[in-house]
Amino acid sequence: MQNQLLLEILTEEIPYSLQKQLITDINTLFANALNTNAINFSNIQVKATCRRICVIVNDIASTTTALSQEKKGPKIDANQNAIDGFLRQNNLTMQQLTQKNGFYFANITTNATATADIIGFIITQQVLAKVKFKKSMHWNESKVFWARPIISILCILQVNNSVNFINSINFANVTSSNYTLGHRFLSLTNSPIIVNNIADYFSKLQQNYVILCQNQRKQHILQQATAIANKYNATLVDNWVLDEIVYLTEYPVVLESVIDNKYLHLPKQLIITIMANNQRYLNLQTQQGNLLPNYIIVANNLPKDNGAEIIKGNNKVLVARLEDGLFFYNQDLKTPLTNNIQKLKNITFFQDLGSYHNKVTSMQALFNNLVQNNVLTNLTANDINHITTAIQLCKADLVSGAVQEMPELQGIMGGYYYQQQNNNSAQTTLIANGIKTHYKPQGPADSLPANYIGSIVSFIDKLDTLQQLFAIGKKPTGSSDPYALRRNALAIIRFLTASSNNVATENKFNNNIVFSLLTNNIELQEFFTERFKNYLAETIQISKDTINQILADLYSILAIKGTTGLCYLYNSHNNTLQTINRINKMLASANYTYSHNTNALSQINTNLFTTNQEKQLYNQLTASNINIAQLHTACNNFFEIKIIDNNTASNTNKLHLLALANYYFANYLYNQSINYINSN
Amino acid sequence: MTTQKINDFQDLISSLEAFWINQGCTKLTPYDAEMGAGTFHPATALFSLNPKPFSTCYVQPSRRPTDGRYGQSPNRLQHYFQFQVVIKPVPSKQNITDTYLKSLQHIGIDINKHDIRFVEDDWKSPTLGASGLGWEIWCDGMEITQFTYFQEMGGISCPVVAVEITYGLERLAMYLLEIDNVYNLPWNAKAGVMYGDIFLNSEKAFSDYNFNHANVQNLVTQFKIMEEECNNLIANNLVYPAYHCAIKASNVFNLLDARGVISVAERELYISKIRNLVKQCCNLYVQQCNTNNFKGF
Prior knowledge:
A: about 675 residues, alpha+beta, four-stranded antiparallel sheet, B: alpha+beta, 8 helices
């Protein structure tokens, strides 16, 4: 019998996000607790369903590790008080002291304790009592908070071939015992199931229709769902619903159903919002991305009629909801989007900041401003008309029935309505797609809008929001950003740094602008700068240290106009930034003390050169007029030779070369930036 | 308790009542003031702040003026019935969620044939200053019950947590009897009396009243009167009539809302006024519970 510990906390159904977090948290808490108490183990596994969380500690030691420590005391000739103090502190008598090198020493031993004797206490005080949920509740006199009420606790310790039931855990007025419960509906018995040992626990759960392991449930669902999809030559629509379904069931049963074709002309996102978000169904789509009327229900029951009643019931609910969706869609289409503009006066944008009607006016003014300041460029008169139309209408769908029912569809429905309500032309589609995607990107992983209209409207919308919120003091703190302002700023930076051949931006954003052109608010400018540094660090992997170093190197002028410098450098000297970054990484990993003064030159010993690349680089570095382009080439060639981390004179020599190159690159960037700042 | 087949709406009510009475609940009558949900009944709103154990069940007619559809919608009504169960403290001997499932079997839902799910739902009532954690209970994808553990009422943390189970009676009846239109529900099958016989005319008239005829100025005045009366009664330590006025103010607000005359800013203002009244009532109630010779509820 393997040495193992099992802990099961059985509860009422816990929400998916909370249980998911608990899986991670309880693993960490358990590991920390065991380590603190010197109980060895090889690994911890956590399995969970919505009703139970199960911690398995493998190869747990039967006792704590005994410790023997030699503690140094006072000098042998120290005064008696000092010696008495030492004895008292460590609970010792004079006889227990030894002498060495003129000092008293004491041997402090902590005896090994049986794990079985202390594990109950450890679990109660150092694991369970330390669990915190984002949202929790209390339900009995213990006033303990947990995600949902706790029903039972089971703890079995198996060591040295003996089975110990740990009955000393008492938490939330629940005392640990030796029983569990099976599946709510499929369990062979509704009575508590007595567990005899750990293997018995797993086996009894399985017999009583609980698939404990979340991965197993997921695989089971995926397999069956994919088989159904294959039947129709389709694939599963990929979204978050699957992960949640895994936790909504202890025994997932995959059922197939179909709805009337009559709803399939509705916008895809509308159907998916109803089916996935509201009802937790899995949708199927063709290779071209069109939804099928066939869909998948994952039930938590295995009825004798093979699910006929369940399917019938779900279909009814779904049809009712889709009818609602259809009703709203048809109603909404009857009202031209332009008629909604006045109604936007009734929708508050933000407390103290007025309605969405105000916001649209503000966005329009901002657009004019950005065009005047050349932040937006290369816009034809047609472009400007399209963008103006899009700005006017981008929020109009907020008063539509569909969006009021399902706010996650904002923008998307507006795009559909515009498309349907206007003549069938390329221009209509362009504006429609712009409106549809103007909320993107909604996070660093999200793509940019479909076209330049969407991008510009998105840019203006987000910049306007940032300006307005910062103006009333609503900037994010270190730990909290309730209005997603960091996300908005990141989006703006992505637009400004998009390459010239990006179809989303079509070169209509001037990427040599400074943040002071976007806003007068100093705090907001600084906010953009911080976000930009983060962006550089994450996307082109230029570390924040390198960036800060460049800024520090480039003296105080750039520190003040740092935003200018950064934008400019990023866009016009990206290569050089990359190279500097690479050099800095190599110097850092070789523990080379970064020195960017020309002393490096005097430290270079040309006799140690063994390769052409070294000679080439050296020549470039000692030319009377440094040619940056040629220096780049020489560096790139140089990167091909290996610099081994063994502190030989030869390798250190190579590092000197790099440090010197770094100095010249930094200097070059500095000069370029100064020129740019002074001429703009 | 054996499962009995429900034949009509009144069957459903008596069946649920019988079940919960058997569980030890005291069956109360509906509160005689207009309210948006069974939670507003003093037996829930106020009594939940009294640590004394109490279990109750009752039918509560609920009014949501904005949901009026002139009798045209097959399942949306501005006046409908909730079946409310409140148990305090949360039972420790028998698991309340298991008991709830038994109640479903009792009214004829075979839980072995259907897919019953506990779907996360956390409930908040801004006007009551109340909140709780719990679930929507789904049966084959349709919500049939709201299941909540109260955490806070009138801004006060509940000293003893109550569990509230709210069944939507019309929806449940339509599901059990396989009826698609609420007005076609048999209310008394033997006598051939349908839900529509009793309520269709009234739904039409009330929808018209709520949306078109309620006198706005009078309503605004009524709200002020109720607010003033409530404050006065609180100052005189008369918590039950004070709370009665708070409930009435809340209903007046719902009517004004249906009339479409409340702007976004005003809505927040009305809600906070009502919440303030309820909070004061709850505070006064808790004070009274704590006095030495306080008996009962």
